[in-house]
Task: structure prediction
Amino acid sequence: MPDPAMRVAVGQFHELTDEKLRFAAQIGVTGIQMNNPTLPGDTHWEEADIRRLVEKVEAAGLVFEAIENVPTHFYDKAMLGLPGRDEQIENYCRTLRAVGRAGVPILGLHFMPNSVWRTDRRAPGRGGAGNTRFEMAKVDGTTKAEWRRFMPTTLGRAESMPLFDTAEGVVSAEAMWANYTYFMDAVLPVAEEAGVRIALHPDDPPVPMLGGVARIFKDPADFKRAHARYADSPSWGLDLCLGCCSEMPGGAANVREMITYFGPKGRIFYVHFRDVQGTVPDFIECFIGEGNFDPGEVMALLRRSGFTGFLLDDHVPHMDDDTDWNHRGRAHAIGYMQGLLRMAERAA
Result:
């Protein structure tokens, strides 16, 4: 079982290799998270396949903390309210039960049918490191055929991300909210029964609409609205991506608001500890400590809020001679978090 105190994990990969497990042990973390693991199944996952991952992690002396995201095609019709969504929801519930029976306590969820968007994937950062950047001005005025190049595969394994349309050409915020509540009304009771907590990730980038699809988790008020509906469910909570909150208009103020509102309620299940410079409509990802928020203040705020989940490296700059998974950038982020956490513990 996960440690009840704040801790650091390694994640954001979809293949569980011996090298990743050794990296985790060598860098001194206690747990593993996987993002959209490569598993059999075109519509859902089975318990036995998930359990093999859990057993491999535990055999390495680590804890399997969470799975973040299932393949988007498992529930894209549910997100968009299209025919076939009920079958997808039924299969999502099958996955939820399998995740719970396999011993994984958290399943991360995003509600972005057309994924994370970036307009530059190697924007120059500190010392020439490669960062991702989003500029809405580069999206405005582009054609549908050009949209696909803005959608990197940062949600897990590479998928063919479709572009969605209704007869009117857009999916409105009202429609997306209706789709979200229809989906959650069906899956939350199953999650509760299975002992699984569903961790909602913010929209990235947090803008009103991209590619003809509205984004409904783009500011703190959106999360408060969802919480008001599902406050009675212990399975509703957040994968609090600090970077996404920092991207929102207002920057660091959103990070503080999300922590102080949801932390004491026990609704922050885990944290992506990353930051950006700037906010929408134009921001660039960066190393921890050079972005919008003060990482020491935020770590202390998380502790004071009562947060007892795990902290995770997320998007990191690509350093010279780094791997595709960015071992060097992740080692920097993880070491930074470990130092901040130790200081927060001593200051308490």
In short: Residues 153-161 have pLDDT under 50 and may be disordered. The CA atoms of residues 316 and 329 lie 6 Å apart. The chain has twelve helices and 14 strands.
